[in-house]
Specification:
The protein is of the alpha/beta class and about 525 residues long. It is built from 14 helices and eleven strands. A hairpin with a 4-residue loop joins strand 1 and strand 2. It is an enzyme of class 2 (transferase).
Length: about 525
């Protein structure tokens, strides 16, 4: 966690002198440093929570993370300056500051989800919380410095050693908070409860330190003010925790409609499946619509059937854990084996066992020719290339390249690995996003494939009925539903077969620009 670097160490003596501590100076110093540790851990959890929410609710994790972090660091500097006014009342100021931080940070996830669900826009709320939390975190350190200097002065310890101890506790706490959020809090408690619990820890740590260790410095009115403030904050956080499940269900209904049948968080993402007896299923991954039963057949037929023109005994599907691309592959009876590289085992379990989704994919995972390999597609493709695997067909059924997490799966290096696993006369089919609404992204995929040594044939499928009904990419930049899906058929050393006519594939209306640079791991181009 980055703290404001300019902190004054010299502290004017309190008028009348500070009251004696209830513990020895060494124990008091330890308690202050322990509080620094806990506050730093909580502060970084708030920070990571905002970054995660920004990526989930708005999209484009790189840009949103940059906004959150830059605003927070700036706000921390502002908070550090504002804390000068509180140093003469450092104890009560710190206690109230931590209560405010616990309330704002603890409720941030609830408010951001609410603005997204019922207003449809979370950007302004995100910036507001980043600013508010940053100001409060930035004000912590000067006040803590003032409090620990009172103890260190009695113990006749040098200012340099005090500063070193304070920042060491702060950075170690940030490390613990940074590791606890992705590995403990988020998978075990989820976004809402983890933020609320962090707020409770924050309030208890700050209030207990001030009321017990420095309580004798406070007036009766100040003590009661701190007690009432912390009890009120803890009551709000506790109430919100009890109601978190009901709130989450309300948010899902507001975003996805009333027909949510399955809502689970796997080790990778949130998976939501909607539908009913009179409505085809829809699959959302982290808020993004990935499958609509109304029109998915047009997408998957156009993706798979053109690339199956030619040898296709051994097929590799990249992504496609929903089993729908596999369904189309298995329509070709002479397929001998289908290997699926899928990141999320939870999606495959749902596609295998959910009655509606399994019926939609034709019970593809019950076919003995299908084998699933779990893990990141890039890593698994590299392993397959090093092992000398050879496939007649590779089907890239991956999320849109405009999504930051998918960018490396549309890079020249990724396609270089795909080329290594293709057998002689092998072909590669790539989903490259909507061509008409995002032409630059589409043609960048084409340029990237050509830079990896492929010859390409662009094509598309029309008749799209479903847009992005929820999530950060629920509409295009123009605010309208995409009208098509864009694909590329690629082969090395020879021009791939004409895809038009197979599976409803249509010709593109015009050739794309010839001077677009390829996207690489070092320089991803899809966000430009």
């Amino acid at each position: 966690m980055i703290e404001a670097p300019h902190v004054s160490v010299a502290v004017p003596p309190a008028q009348g002198g500070p009251a004696p501590l209830p513990v020895r100076q060494r124990a008091g110093r330890f308690l202050v440093l322990a509080t620094v540790f806990l506050c730093a851990a909580c502060g970084l959890v708030y920070e990571l929570e905002l970054v995660a929410l920004a990526s989930y609710l708005i999209g484009d994790s790189v840009k949103q993370a940059s906004v959150v972090l830059s605003v927070m660091v700036f706000a921390m500097g502002v908070g550090s300056l504002l804390a000068k006014r509180l140093r003469c009342r450092a104890a009560v100021g710190f206690g109230l500051l931590e209560a405010a931080l616990a309330l704002v940070g603890g409720c941030s996830a609830l408010v951001l989800h609410a603005t997204f669900a019922w207003i449809g826009e979370s950007r302004y709320a995100l910036v507001g919380f980043s600013m508010a939390i940053g100001v409060l975190i930035g004000a912590e350190m000067p006040l803590l410095m003032t409090l620990i200097q009172r103890i260190s002065r009695r113990a006749e310890q040098d200012a340099g050693g005090t500063v070193a101890d304070l920042f060491a506790a702060d950075y170690v706490g940030a490390l613990v908070g940074g590791l606890a959020f992705p590995f403990l809090l988020l998978p075990w408690l989820g976004q809402l409860t983890s933020a609320l619990l962090t707020g409770a820890v924050n309030a208890v740590a700050g209030g207990a330190l001030v009321l017990w260790l420095f309580g004798r410095d406070l007036s009766t009115r100040a003590r009661w003010l701190l007690v009432v403030a912390n009890v009120a904050v803890l009551a709000v956080l506790a109430t919100a925790t009890v109601l978190a499940d009901d709130f989450e269900r309300s948010v899902r209904r507001a975003v996805y409609g009333e027909r949510v049948r399955v809502a689970v968080r796997t080790d990778v993402q949130e998976v939501v499946l909607t539908g009913g007896p009179d409505r085809p299923p829809e699959l959302f991954l982290d808020g993004r619509l990935r499958v609509s039963g109304r029109d998915e057949h047009r997408y998957h037929r156009a993706l798979v059937h053109p690339v199956m023109r030619g040898p296709h005994a051994r097929v590799l599907v990249l992504g496609g854990g929903d089993g729908l691309a596999v369904r189309e592959v298995l329509r070709h009876g002479d397929v001998e084996s289908v290997t699926v590289f899928e990141l999320d085992a939870g999606v495959v379990r749902l596609a295998r066992h959910d009655p509606a989704l399994a019926r939609l994919n034709g019970y593809a995972y019950g076919d003995p020719r299908v084998r699933v390999v779990y893990g990141d597609a890039f890593a698994r493709l590299r392993e397959a290339a090093e092992a000398g695997a050879a496939y007649d067909v590779v089907v890239s059924d991956l999320p849109d390249p405009g999504i930051t997490a998918s960018t490396k799966l549309y890079s020249a290096e990724f396609y270089g690995l795909a080329a290594r696993v293709l057998a002689d006369r092998g072909r590669l089919a790539v989903h490259a996003g909507p061509m008409e609404s995002r032409p630059r992204t589409y043609w960048t995929v084409d340029a990237t494939l050509r830079s990896a040594g492929f010859l390409t044939r662009p094509y598309r499928a029309t008749g799209r009925l479903s847009g992005f009904a929820a999530g950060p990419d629920r509409s295009t930049d123009e605010g309208s539903v995409p009208s098509d899906w864009g694909f590329l058929l690629a082969a090395r050393g020879r021009v791939p077969p004409d895809p038009v006519g197979a599976g409803g594939a249509r010709a593109v209306p015009a050739p794309g620009p010839a001077d677009l640079p390829p996207s690489t791991l070092v320089h991803p181009r899809y966000g430009e």
